[in-house]
Amino acid sequence: MSTKPSDKDVLVVVDVQNDFCGGGALEVRGGEEIVPAVNALIGKFDHVVFTQDWHPPGHGSFASTHNAQMFSAINVSYGIQTLWPNHCVQGTPGSDFHPDLKTTTGELIIRKGFRKEVDSYSAFFENDQLTQTGLKGYLNERGLERVHVCGLAIDFCVAFSAIDAVRCGFESFVVEDACRAIDVDGSLEHAKAMMLKTGVKMAASADYA
Ligand code: VGL
Ligand code: ZN
């Protein structure tokens, strides 16, 4: 069945940035392959929001900040934090959106991860699960009720965003073919299980007319 997005539907395009694409600092395998599918979705929605991972130099999620191994994990005040290669540093080319991404009709860009001590995977809450980005209020004030998430990476920022959308009272969908995974230490399987348990619905680009 194919449905046409209404004025209550919003597409949230997560972190389609150079550092998550081929040759980027935190390359997601096949990341750039989703750009045509994401652009096609953008063309179908009246309301489009982008997120942009946006870290200051020396961010607390960078392995280099802790002289630790990339993709290892440490305990921080808000729980376990995976340590990443330096990526999406504010103002660098790696933090730019993929050059082919059609950002023109976007109504809002949510930047996240800009506080040095707290990472932010979700478009709604920072990783402390408390600090809000403002997206919930924005969507509520604009009467948007259904959130459709695509982008990079499905096992981190996409999953956290879709799960938090449910938590914030929205109906939440992940457009699976318009996502790719980092898949470190079983993260993809874990994220999928969490999404299903929370009530996130899996969708495909073909579901949208
Ligand atoms: C992301 C790890 C670190 C993502 C961002 O966009 O999924 N993953 N920062
Ligand atoms: Zn990041």
Structure description:
- The chain is α/β, with parallel strands linked by helices.
- The protein has a single domain, classed as Rossmann fold (3-Layer(aba) Sandwich).
- It has 4 helices and 8 strands, in the order βαββββαβαβαβ.
- The strands form 2 sheets. The chain has a 6-stranded parallel sheet with strand order 5-2-1-6-7-8. Strands 3-4 form a two-stranded antiparallel sheet.
- A hairpin with a 2-residue loop joins β3 (73-76) and β4 (79-82).
- It starts with 8 loop residues before the first strand and ends in a 6-residue tail after the last strand.
- The relative contact order is 0.20.
- It binds pyrazine-2-carboxylic acid and zinc ion (ZN).
Write a short abstract of this structure:
The protein has 209 residues and is an alpha/beta fold. 20% of the residues lie in helices and 22% in strands. The protein has one domain: 3-Layer(aba) Sandwich (Rossmann fold).
